Amino acid sequence: MKLKKYAVLLVVVLTLFMSACARNTANQRTSLLTIQQQGSFMVGGTTISEPGKFNLTNALKPQGQTLHGDHAYVFYQIPPKARKYPLVFLHGAAESKKTWESTPDGREGFQTIFLRRGFGVYLLDQPRRGEAGKSTVASSLAPTPDEQFWFTQFRIGNYPDYFDGSQFPRDTAALEQFFRQMTPNTGNFDVNLIATACSQLFDRIGDGILITHSQGGGPGWFTAIKNEKVKAVVAYEPFSSFVFPVGELPKPIQSASLFGELKGVEVPLSDFEKLTRIPIMIYYGDNIAKEPTIVWNKDHWRAGLEMAKIWAATINKHGGKATVVHLPETGIKGNTHFPFSDLNNLQIAALLSDFLKEKKLD
Amino acid sequence: MKLKKYAVLLVVVLTLFMSACARNTANQRTSLLTIQQQGSFMVGGTTISEPGKFNLTNALKPQGQTLHGDHAYVFYQIPPKARKYPLVFLHGAAESKKTWESTPDGREGFQTIFLRRGFGVYLLDQPRRGEAGKSTVASSLAPTPDEQFWFTQFRIGNYPDYFDGSQFPRDTAALEQFFRQMTPNTGNFDVNLIATACSQLFDRIGDGILITHSQGGGPGWFTAIKNEKVKAVVAYEPFSSFVFPVGELPKPIQSASLFGELKGVEVPLSDFEKLTRIPIMIYYGDNIAKEPTIVWNKDHWRAGLEMAKIWAATINKHGGKATVVHLPETGIKGNTHFPFSDLNNLQIAALLSDFLKEKKLD
Fold first, then answer.
1. Cis, peptide link before residue A160, omega less than 30° from 0
2. Is the model's pLDDT at B18 over the cut of 90?
3. Between chains, do A147 and B14 touch, taking CB under 8 Å as contact?
4. d(Cα B183, Cα B199) in Å, to the nearest integer?
5. What ipTM, to 2 d.p.?
6. C-beta separation of A288 from A305 below 8 A
7. What contacts B12, CB < 8 A, 6 or more positions away?
8. Residue ranges per domain, chain B?
9. Are B149 and A9 inside 8 Å of each other by CB?
10. Beta bridge partners of residue A41, listed in sequence order
11. Cβ of A11: how many Cβ atoms within 10 Å?
12. Which of A130, A229, A296, B274 is most buried, judged by most C-beta within 10 A?
């Protein structure tokens, strides 16, 4: 009788133990985030010095003083038992690392989605932007009302109309958040400064995957050229600074874009070839023209997508592994210029996870 | 015999279970961070609109377009079973939320220290700073070398000398990080804009504790006046905008400060009295003059500390609960203007934990 009692007690205790363990694991997977380490630092940058000697009794005079600027700001989070390669996120024009954080309607962005999936994440504010605002060059900021332009340029719709089936949330609060997350340059955009800071980040953290958006695409290619620790590049709607080997520059692509024709950039063949040694994935969203049109936003991105296809073909001709995915062709409709924060961003994240898995990068 | 075996097995299983539980708890306390929710959003702000009608075919013209600016950016992290009140952190002059993140030498700052202690944390970039850079006013940025001034002003030492026993790390890499984390205004500093954004943050998140630094002290007092959801204010080295009831303004404090004399600011008695209803704690660090001196940095902060003492006495005369702690008088030596990121920041954090516990705010 006593024996039976002990046996029952043992089963009860074992059940408790196992369910506690299971609960703990489930929490980590679905609800609670666990983080081994998080923090922030500055990387890259230049320094200017005013000639002369610093005088403590005349300390507002610049003589003998320094100014450190042009660095990137980095916020990072590393989960326990992180996957092999962390993800490094570089935002686009007029954006900061905010672009990868909460979406305009408050859902989780790629920062937290990929942290949950076990990746270390590094989010940059590029030199002369956001918390990396300290610049070694002068700048004038003018508050020019232009948000209806950006609504249209970023293919939420043709203002004030949203595109049919747009993956941008419809509430005005989300649109206000979207407008407010834009933040100005505090010095001119400088591809080389940004690529240098990104490359120094990889020197610090080791091998990783670079994820870029839009204007960040250009400095992204140059980062991968500078640093072989970049093990893959994933570019969302890259625009500008598509690099080609000397002598292989395609004709500029004419379009109705308000930014004019789209040109490639020449680099030495030996630099270009560095981009042929890593997997590269490029995604473009919806509402991009198939043929030239006077609808300038749709035509701007038509030029971008066409250039990306020419570029990937050039990479692949040189032995590389670049893929361009035009999302609507795979059945994923309605994406704006910001697929990673659109309403279907978990679907977009799944594509990235699949790519990393397929290339054995996760 | 069989009975004994079951008993032994039961003890073994129980021991395993308890040690697994203990390990899990210990991890959460010392090593792994657990987070229920994290994200970012913009709060507060104003909007300007250009008269006219937006014309899609002339979209670079400002007519009929808007510009949203002057909001704060907020990054937040909430641990599971968070304590009653979250901590809201407002940085000082030329800083961003970075000031509360990793220290210049890479240790954990108050963001992560207090997250580990179970507090929800909200970190702001104030309007026209950092990732809240979008401003409704014009601004000119000039890169003026001035870091040796700030080294001295912030009481790391009298440049190039560190103060004896300074709690600032001695390596040049840390000093470089410190210089690089400064980031410029993208529009004039506006106390009311900042306080309005902070107050709207409390409207959104509910009751909490406001933690300010330096220039953030002023908008901090106005936030607590605006919003009774501010349940306490903790101010590190507040400077500027000490508020007094009409008719009770003290004489300006003369000093050798390069910023000139220090004045209080008059507010209606009914506003002032709102600050008497919550606990207020103020901390100042080391190397502040006791008597007037021509050493301008030490004298600048002498004026600040004297004003803080007059202010706290006025608060308390009106029935309030304000305390000024001059850290060296409690035996804590060597703190710069940034006690929360100094080498002894865990000791500084312990004071804050003790204060919150004593006031039953944790």
1. yes
2. no
3. no
4. 23
5. 0.91
6. yes
7. none
8. 1-32, 37-358
9. no
10. A74
11. 10
12. A130
